[in-house]
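WARN no homologs supplied; continuing
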Amino acid sequence: MAKSEILQIQIGKNGLTDSFIEQVRKLSLKSERMKIVILKSACRDKAEAKQMCEELVEKLGKNYAYRLIGYVCTLFRFRKDIRK
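OK structure emitted
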């Protein structure tokens, strides 16, 4: 897998499950950046999408950050502990 390749996955009607979070954690070891598309069946509006992203980053740990544009969450994994 090339370093510049960005992985893309989707959150569907089941929302943030423990298995989805584990899948994100495993995939983030392969790529430092990942796009997560939040389907309309997963949330009602952009505020709920933002809340889902915040919950995901909180459960993944302090080495993760996100940027939400529309219903696409770009997840970043930092190599070193930079967030406290």
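Helices lie at 18-28, 46-60.
OK
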